[in-house]
Amino acid sequence: MVLGSDSIFHFNRFFDTAEQIANKNFNYFQANYGFQQAGRIITPLYGPFVSYLMGLLLMLLGSWLKFQLAVDLLILVTAAYGVYSLSKRLHSNQDFAIISGILFMTSISITGWVLNQHFTSFGLVLIPYILKYAVDFLDDTNKVNIIGLGISMALLIQTHFLSVIFTTIALLFLFIIGFISSTKKIALLVRVFAAALLAFILTLNVWGGLFEVYSGNHLLSTWPTMNIDAAAIKLSFQSETETQLGIVLSVLFLAQIIYTIIHFKQTSKNNQVFTLIGIFFLVLSSRLMLWNALSKSIPQLTTLLQFPSRMRGVAAIFLLVALSISCTELLNKHNSFISGIRGSLILGICFTTFNAYVNVSDLASIWHSDQPISATNAITNQKKISADKVRRAFRSNNLSDGVKTVEKSTPDYLPTYTRIDAQHYLKMHPYSLVEKNIINKKQFNKQVINNGTLKLTWHSHNNKSVYLPIVTYQHSQVKLNGITTTHLKTNAIGNPLVFAKRGTNTVLLNYQMSALTHDSIILSICAWILTLISTVIFKIRFHKHSS
User: Fold this and answer.
1) What whole-number distance in Å separates Cα of residue 113 and Cα of residue 102?
2) Which element (helix H / strand E) includes 507?
């Protein structure tokens, strides 16, 4: 097992949906099983489709160890095949397409999930599949696949929202270039609009959930990166890290850029476009952007973007695919250097693969050490948790053991009184508030009952006011000892204050979504079913007609 910096947060997401599925007791908004059973809203704000998909996989595998191994393999294979198939789509030689796929798979952008459970990797692996359809923008034959582009983009929206922003920027570049050169501008515009409309309909649950929660609540952002420059990348001649591109990718990217600039008129349009877009994202991910100065003008960058290095994964997709095209062009010209280039690329693969192996091996040794958690930031009650207890918990067939043994006080998306900027965020110490007001309040018994309702019971020695270790939002419904209570006073992170009577007290917490949001979820599910059935029927008929 590897318990990286983001592992506990995402494991709680997947545990919550796994338990919903296993118990057939669903609550799309309220987390009743994960996140200390505090009723927090996470799933609708953070990749709902993939949350439930990963929850299903976790439930079927029944162990955190099996789950992590399966997801790691899935991410790596999906990443490699995505870049390989995109390269092949752009007529690259198979050898060079395979090399590009492996280089992408072994880069930190992808192994970031394996090493630290960074969810950006989930978004990055889907981008090549979208680009496979989007490259048709550059083709004047007007063959843009509406269904393929719409479904692939919808999958990304249902997975990782920041990756959607990166991909949308890339698609805009491709569309503008294609539109300018197209002789069938209206037809291109219509097909792209149709694909966008399909993606919107398939993700109505995402938009409905985001609108409902953000329109009625102020939510705490992710941790603000105050020195955002330090989170950008730089070229380096060492091993690849989160802020260093590494010798292999640095050399290959520079070689591709220089080659394309020198031979710009001789290279294909696809090569030119992919190289230019790759350069754009590479510059954005680097310290050349003077991110600290930018963040002063746009403070939201410290929480929305956090780490400019995230964009190097997008740059890697474009530049590695462009590299495979360049090598193919040289091969077709019978260039005498092609054998040396192929050998150098294989050597590069060996280096990046070895680097990935060393990184994983180092973390594997941590798992077997006296401190098996590789990233201990914000892990609560660390001194009370023995190494053997952690290992037993995550090897156990009882999935709750893991998330209950290792708890992290991540405050993302908690409701606050007002909008919290980066400076105020640091002053309020939200991690400490979560630990004090949610995690450490163990005297409350929590149980999930029918209709996705969370039940709290506790004993009070006298009549007194008490903050509950649950969280309430605008549409949360609270019943105290059988009586519905409204306009409850809350603290800085949304814990409600109630007046407890002497003896046993009971609180029921549920979330009543609006009719509009409910309908958007139903429409989204129906749209997915109809789209997938229609696609299967079309493919069957197409194959029958072809044969």
Assistant:
1) 16
2) strand 503-511
